[in-house]
Amino acid sequence: MTVSPGAPAPPGAVPAPTLGARVGPLPGWQVGTLVDAWEESASARTLVLAVPSWPGHLAGQHVDLRLRAPDGYVAERSYSIGGPVTRGPDGVPRIALTVQRVADGEVSTYLTDTFAVGYPVELRGPVGGWFVWAPDAVPAPGEPTPLPGPPVLLVAGGSGIVPLVAMVRERRRAGSRTPFRLVVSVRTPADRLFVEEVTRTGTDGVDVTVLYTRAAPLDDGSDEPGPARRDPGRMTPADLAAHGWPAELEPACFVCGPTPFVEAAAQMLLALGHDAARIRTERFGPAGD
Asked: Which of 6, 34, 195, 268 could form a disulfide with 237 if both were Cys (CB 3.0 to 4.6 A apart)?
């Protein structure tokens, strides 16, 4: 039972927050329910939503979330889907979103701090058909396994890793042999997301390198991914040349992160000889709070 803001709460009731208290989808929207959640870092949270009418999605797509207050105020934000669709014990499709808390952000702080299991949310999706990756075709029984597709280079800045990890997870789910390289730039070790997955470098055809801009971990022989360590600093063309794919292999390149990071990374790839038609970018800015 949910209680409207300002109403007295009977025993056992879940008080509704001001934002997100009203749910009533318009055409094209549907209602999802939070069924699980966990912290990915001190400032990021993964949300698992049960969505009964979910049509399926491709790795790299996103959803729009709509939150409405009792006074009619509406806030909408877009969040990348973090992996393949799953199903709960009841057979209802589930999708996972990872939300990075933004200081003073009205939506991200609600989703990371207040949004509780059992709460509903309006959503629309999947959205986007450009920034997507699909695995090799699955052969029919008795047919030969197809050759791996062209190599894939994933370049992430901060929480821009979410749709790229979705591609890694889809590759793993499909049993694809397409070689992947993932280069992640974060401020500090505490800012990493999906730590367990990004430390499994090289174990299943996915090579991972983590670059730090503010503070790097101590050289203590820990499970830090990447073939080499370097001092903290912004990502450089030399980093992409060392840990990405050579342009002559014609890799499919996906870059996601804050706008300045994406623009810089795309320019680096072009300077390294990568074909602009094979570079796909997705960016987010201050409005994504």
From this structure: 268
- Does the residue 144 lie in any domain? no
Q: Are residues 111 and 198 in the same domain?
A: no
115-165 per-position pLDDT tens digit = 999 999 999 999 999 999 998 765 566 666 666 778 999 999 999 999 999
User: Across all residues in the chain, what is the average pLDDT?
Assistant: 86
Q: Say if residue 168 is in the same domain as residue 90.
A: no
Name the domain count of the chain. Answer: 2
Domain that holds residue 56: 2-127
Whether residue 241 lies inside any domain: the answer is yes
Which residue ranges of the chain lie beneath pLDDT 70?
1-27, 137-147, 200-203, 218-229, 285-289
CB under 8 Å to 149, separation ≥6 — which residues? 135, 136, 176, 178, 252
Q: Which of 68, 92, 127 is the last residue of a domain?
A: 127
